[in-house]
Amino acid sequence: MQAVLALLSDNEFHSGEALGAALGVTRAAVWKKLKKLESIGVTVHSVKGRGYRLPSPLELLSEDALRENGAPDDVRIMLAFETQSTNGDAKQYIAQGQSLPVLFSVERQTHGKGRRGRQWESGVAKNITFSFAWRFDNGPSVIEGLSLAAGVAVARVLKKIGIPNPGLKWPNDVQVDGQKICGILLEMVADQDVCHVIIGIGLNVEMDSAFMTHIDQPWTDLVSRLKSRPSRNFILAELTKELVEVCKLFEDGHGMKHFQHQWQAYDVLFNQAVTVSSVSQQRQGVAKGIDQKGALLLEENGEVVALHGGEISVRRG
User: Catalytic residue at 180?
Assistant: First the structure.
């Protein structure tokens, strides 16, 4: 399917015969592949006598394009058309003892997940879904607050491509004008002093509203916020560079303390009345930013308490 998509990515008409010749298959086989693409959400226009085309140009991810845009040479890049979960792929890769850092990204993720077991939709070659894995040799305590620092990295890249007002909602949602544009999920594979961390990120570049009916919160995407369609390869390369710098700072012991004020500059909840929910309780108060470990500071009845991540959700009001 990726080969067909690559041929159609120019938004021009291609006859079934030409597609078949390029792929070395029959026209009937081409038709089957196009039907498969349509079944996973790709719109393909068919015009008798002219052939097939996509409604708009498509940019597929490629290692060459990522390297040209500055993805560091020491980060191994693993690209695929489809997978269940890039975080799952990264876990398997770590279990095999292969070299880090590594970047896994796909055009379509079928069983992506967000925090608290939520499903994460990626579409097909429209959004950015990836996992970045790094090895820390100083134990799990070194990475306290790392997911918040990853949020700062995303916010920086969004500003660079023309989003003037990205915001961060504790613990790890990235928003624009109160609408979610990106989610971050950190997973850890620890073995005594060695700690492997997987930073999973899903960024909305171009969402298909027909597939988003089950989402229970306001969302937005880059295409609806920018004047021109941004390059997915450029954004992913920029995010990779930022995450390398973040992980190096944590590795060197600077940690969340280095990012505390940067994170708070993007904090959308500061001085807002919030409800904090966990499995066992709900509490209400006023959000007062974060501490040097990345814990949410909540003012309750005149006292400030520090709440750490995990299975906690925060809502305004």
Answer: yes
